[in-house]
Design goal:
about 400 residues, alpha/beta, Aspartate Aminotransferase, domain 1, Aspartate Aminotransferase, domain 2, 2 domains, 7-stranded mixed β-sheet, binds 4'-deoxy-4'-aminopyridoxal-5'-phosphate
Length: about 400
């Protein structure tokens, strides 16, 4: 026996032997702060109703804003592509994983966005990580909205550029930071969500773009929650503010209104060509699966040809916000101009408690807590396919939940 040769005092304690022991301690801390999360399985097609733990709940927790993730036409397109091209792309795009289908989807995205070109990624997260790290490096400056999505923040970290956060949607602060710091760096990149994912408000894009031009800075906008929803043709916030053709780079996801999986970057032909040669999260990863690619293409076709879907979503947003204002005027909603409507709460414990109460009343709406957001909240997301009766059920359930708990 090895230990018989080592004196007892030199035998390490069990915790010292186990280099993974800190993980349990860390989990315990997360639980103590009420920050602990675990996924819940949804056992039905995506839609306005979902089955969770054998109960059918009204779904106000998805990003499937137009209801396309469960649309028959989109599903059929994914199945046909799988049958024709198989389940996986089998390689990275620059080796064996490129298909005409990818090119067709990229053309469809560029056409929707009014850009020269587009590039699809395996996810929106990877699109942000890789694009930011390709555009800027150690000699450069990033100015980032304080409430940007994690993928933008981590892209900034990965790039190694000096990153300064400016106040949320605070154009004066952004201007000041540019005046103070821009001249000390080679390149500068401003990064911002256009629709803020956990608040639902909009970036003041015309002002941000003007500042980027004035200070010779690049601008990368994250249209994840805007594409398919904003703008006359559903192109997003860039179109909403009539800024198509302006010098900026757009990214987004295929996983929200587009109902599939994957991400994209859209911009000038040379920016896209550059990414194909320098963006590690595109070069060194397997191409998007045929099913995801074809589903996204079918969804973009529906978005482009069915403006009624968008109109229906906006009618639902207006109807819901008006009924909350009339029936629950004291409820503290975070200011929102999108289908994302958040009820702000004092702490994570209250958020978990109220999400549980809503669940008991048949409503699925997740509690969003730090570190995802600075303050806890219930996040509701509305869909074009919600019926008026379902929105009324939501308002009634919120009324019952919040009246009893007195947090409004
Ligand atoms: N940007 C924003 C603003 C998002 O909300 C998300 C997804 N939650 C992403 C990027 C990442 O997109 P994906 O889910 O395709 O990785």
């Amino acid at each position: 026996m090895l230990f018989s040769y080592i004196s007892r005092s030199r035998v390490p304690k069990l915790n010292q032997l186990n280099p993974y022991a800190w993980i349990d301690r860390s989990l315990a801390t997360i639980k103590q702060a009420n920050w602990y999360r675990s996924p819940q399985a949804i056992a039905s097609l995506p839609g306005t109703e979902v089955t969770i733990a054998d109960r059918v709940l009204l779904n106000f927790g998805s990003n499937d804003y137009l209801g396309l993730a469960g649309d028959e036409r989109v599903i059929r397109a994914a199945m046909a592509a799988t049958q024709q091209f198989g389940t996986g792309a089998t390689g990275s795009r620059l080796t064996s994983g490129h298909k005409q289908l990818h090119q067709d989807l990229e053309s469809a995205i560029a056409s929707l966005k009014g850009t020269e070109a587009a590039l699809v990624f395996s996810s929106g997260y990877l699109a942000n990580l890789g694009t930011i790290a390709a555009l800027v490096g150690k000699k450069d400056l990033i100015l980032s909205d304080r409430l940007n999505h994690s993928s933008l923040k981590n892209g900034a970290l990965l790039s190694g550029a000096k990153t300064i956060e400016y106040g949320h949607c605070d154009v004066d602060d952004l201007r000041q930071q540019l005046q103070l710091h821009r001249a000390n760096y080679r390149r500068c990149l401003i990064i911002t969500d256009t629709v803020f994912s956990m608040d639902g408000d909009l970036c003041p894009l015309p002002d941000v773009l003007e500042l980027s031009i004035a200070h010779h800075a690049m601008l990368l906008v994250d249209e994840a929650h805007a594409t398919g929803i904003f703008g006359k043709t559903g192109a997003g916030i860039v179109e909403h503010y009539d800024l198509v053709g302006q010098p900026l780079i757009e990214m987004g996801t295929l996983s929200k209104a587009i109902g599939s999986l994957g991400g994209y970057v859209a911009g000038s032909a040379s920016a896209i060509d550059f990414l194909k040669n320098r963006c590690a999260s595109w070069i060194y990863t397997t191409g998007l699966s045929p099913a995801d690619t074809a589903a996204a293409m079918a969804a973009i076709e529906i978005i482009s040809t069915t403006p009624q879907l968008r109109q229906q979503l906006w009618q639902n947003i207006t109807y819901f916000k008006q009924s909350i204002a009339q029936r629950l005027p004291d409820l503290h909603l975070i200011p929102s101009e999108s289908p994302i409507v958040c009820i702000e709460l004092p702490d994570p414990q209250t958020a978990i408690h109220l999400a549980g109460k809503l669940n008991q009343l048949g409503i699925f709406a997740p509690a969003i807590r730090p570190p995802t957001v600075p303050t806890s909240r219930i996040r509701l997301s509305l869909m074009a396919t919600h019926q008026q009766l379902q929105l009324e059920q939501l308002t009634t359930a919120i009324g019952l939940t919040f009246a009893k708990t007195k947090v409004s």
